[in-house]
Design a protein that fits this description.
By secondary structure, the protein is of the alpha/beta class. It is 42% helix and 16% strand. It binds NADPH dihydro-nicotinamide-adenine-dinucleotide phosphate and 2-hydroxyethylsulfonic acid.
Length: 250
């Protein structure tokens, strides 16, 4: 039987590339995001390869998240693979001048949103003693860089929650892991800098990871044999050595 994967943040970047990768391998998809037109266009592109259902909800909204997942048609209800990917950085400011709205957004989306989605899906996995959860963390979950304070905090939380999930879900045979990329060229910097031109420079002068590179690793993780769990991956582009060291030819 074909597996079903639910991917949050499937309208852009890593989530959308993962949807394409999974569709190529015949995995049925539940694609989530807030931009309905994007959801429609990804669905249209992938429906010739696999069965696709879309859910439009904001992961910050606890009720809408739980209701949306509860509304899944029967064929999509048993999620085998959950990719907790929705998230972003909002702002890049020192702690003393950071915006409360940015902090709320990052903690509410990257941490609490991931928890709400997981809460809605884990019971069907524990009932079946089977499932695979991949949380998209970040290199920012492994080291803190200047002005990254709250974003880094949110991603450190994702990694702690990932470990907690792996421990608590161990009796049920559920695999849990984190994929932690460094710089990936997506809409991430547009969101972080709120459309400011600062976003234009982030990926200049070197070849950053592409969303498809991360999707490849996610697919690798979910396609291992039943006894193998990829627990934690840190991946950089060749030009990046750490959060603050990037070899650029500008
Ligand atoms: P994008 O901005 O391209 O994609 C972000 C996705 O998250 C979009 O599909 C967006 O969908 C969704 N999303 C954002 N906010 C919400 C919300 N409130 N409710 C529901 N969905 C939401 O960024 P990336 O693909 O780069 O980011 C994906 C993940 O990868 C994030 O968790 C990010 O932190 C992480 N990451 C990114 C890196 C990078 O350098 N790009 C590096 C390391 C990790 P919509 O707007 O339609 O709701
Ligand atoms: C995204 C990578 O370096 O902007 O998580 O934090 S970074």
């Amino acid at each position: 039987m074909k597996k079903v994967a639910l991917i949050t943040g499937a309208t852009s970047g890593i989530g959308r590339a993962t949807a394409h990768e999974f569709a190529k391998h015949g995995i049925n998809l539940v694609l989530c995001g807030r931009r309905q037109q994007r959801l429609d266009s990804v669905k249209k592109a992938l429906s010739r390869l696999t069965d696709v259902h879309t859910l439009n909800f904001d992961v910050r909204d606890r009720k809408k998240t739980l209701d949306a997942i509860a509304s899944l048609p029967e064929a999509f209800q048993d999620i085998d693979i959950l990719i907790n990917n929705a998230g972003n950085a909002h702002g890049l400011d020192p702690i003393q001048t950071g915006s409360l709205d940015d902090w709320d957004a990052m903690m509410d989306i990257n941490v609490k949103g991931l928890l709400y989605v997981s809460k809605a899906i884990i019971p069907s996995m524990t009932k079946r003693n089977s499932g695979h959860i991949i949380n998209i963390g970040s290199s920012a979950g492994k080291e803190v860089y200047p002005n990254g304070n709250v974003y880094c905090g949110s991603k450190h939380a994702v990694l702690a929650i990932t470990e907690g999930m792996r421990i608590d879900l161990n009796p049920y045979g559920i695999k849990v892991g984190a994929i932690n990329p460094g710089l990936v060229e997506t809409e991430f910097s547009e969101v972080r800098f709120k459309g400011d031109t600062a976003a234009d420079d982030v990926y200049k002068g070197y070849k950053a990871l592409q969303a498809e590179d991360v999707a490849d690793v996610i697919y690798f993780a979910i396609s291992r044999p039943a006894h193998v769990n990829i627990a934690d991956v840190l991946m950089f582009c060749t030009s990046q050595a750490s959060s603050t060291i990037v070899k650029k030819s500008l």
